[in-house]
Amino acid sequence: MRPSADLRIMMTTDTVGGVWTYSCALASSLAASGADVTLVTMGPQARNDQRRMLRDTRVHLIETDLALEWQDPDGRNVSEARRVLANLEASLMPDVVHLNSFREATFAWHAPTVLVAHSCVNSWAVACRDTAWLDEPRWRRYTERVAAALDMAEAWVCPSGTFYDDMTAIYQPRSRGAVIWNGIAPRDPAGRKQDVIFAAGRLWDRAKNIEALAAAAPELDWPVEVAGPIDTDLAAGVTWLGELPHEAMAARLQHAAIFVSPALYEPFGLSVLEAAAAGCALVLSDIPTFRELWSGAALFFDPADSQALHRTLSELCAGNFGRTRLQRAAYEQSLTYSLTRTTSAYLGLYEDLLASRRTSAAASQIEVRA
After folding, report:
1. Distance CA 18, CA 53 (A)
2. What residues are paired with 199 via a beta bridge?
3. What's phi and psi for 19, nearest 5 deg?
4. How many CB atoms lie within 10 A of CB 190?
5. Where do the domains of the chain lie, and which CATH numbers do they carry?
6. Which residue of 1, 32, 176, 184 has the smallest Cβ count within 10 Å?
7. Host H or E run for residue 333
8. Mean pLDDT of the chain
9. Cβ count within 10 A of residue 365
10. Cβ contacts of residue 206 below 8 Å, gap of 6+?
11. Residue limits of the Glycosyl transferase family domain (predicted)?
12. Closest CA relative to residue 12, chosen from 119, 122, 114, 154
């Protein structure tokens, strides 16, 4: 494999949700392996606590004021994004461009491109059973652009096999696809767990289904805490923590005995992985992604049945032996999703694309000589 010290990578990202966490972890690991990595943000500027996630790394950070694609379905910002990113590529001269959103894959890049699909509006709508609005002209254009992006990228990646199958069924891409599980650095789960049930998610995002946990929370023996942006009416019976910095989230997970995700839609679920790595017992909605990633290491429930969730949590709070066994199983399963493994898979994919480019260039030179 080509030494990573010779590799220049330009990676786009945004600062909303798990994409930032994923990008910081992968970019830092790639840089630690010797690659020269530049992280380019779109959407809101990174907060100070988010910038601290890159502290003590060799990752270069460039922030732009370009719109996020899902906030710009009419495409008003596309031409500006094309101009800004073309200028960055000309300045940085990367060997590989790693894209964490769809729109940019349709631009005219000189370097080979890897497009990572973290989620998409169509698969979100299907999972939430709310698809009528996708017939609006602006969302039809969004669908066309996503399909074009998948076709134009030299390789595209999904973080789970379940989501890969969803993307293939919806868009039927012609380019090469791959599954690379997300990964995190190993955690030390040592420390005394507290009698706390913890969850995290954007309250305004229907797919996170936090209301199912709120409905299950009353009369549980243990307190229920939920972290995430707050912009809606809040149910009683839950401690709403608001949005927490990544280090504060890690501290909460270290102490929480149980982690719950009632999600209707989750292409991977980094928060679940971080909870498992912190030694939390996992209680997860019975959706295909979670079955793929956490079978044998979690308890599953129907996300539409808050009473079933209440019963599951009550039994887990009362049963120390079963809870301890589940915590251990989750931690051991989390080791499968290591950052080292994820980084190696991406480096292998980058090398394959670069080798293909070199082969094509050599073949072209032979044809010219002939």
Report:
1. 13
2. 226
3. -60, -40
4. 7
5. 4-184+338-369 (3.40.50.2000), 194-334 (3.40.50.2000)
6. 1
7. helix 320-334
8. 92
9. 10
10. 128, 130, 264
11. 232-332
12. 114
